[in-house]
Amino acid sequence: MRVLLVNLPRDPRELMFPLELASLGAVLKSQGHRPEGFDFALRRATAWPAVARRCDLLVWMPIPAVWPRVRRLLGELPADDRRMVVLAGPQATLFPQEVLATPAVDAVILGEAEQVIARAIHAWRDRVAADIPGVAWRDSRLEPGPGDVAPAERIERLDELPPADRTVFGIDDYTGMATRRLRYTQIVAGRGSGRDCNHSARSRLLGGGRRARSVQNVLDEMAALRERFGIDEFHFEDDALFEDRRYVAELCRAIRRELPGVVWQCPSGNHPNDVPIDLLAELAAAGCYRIYIEPHSPRPAAMELLDWSWDPQRIGPLANRAGQVGIELGGYFTLGLPDESCRQMEQTVDFAVASGLRWAQFTPFRFVPGSELWRRRDELAPRLPDETAVRRAVRRAYRRFYGSPRRCWGVLRNINHRNAAQILRRAYDKLILGRPF
Question: pTM (2 decimals)?
Answer without folding.
Answer: 0.93
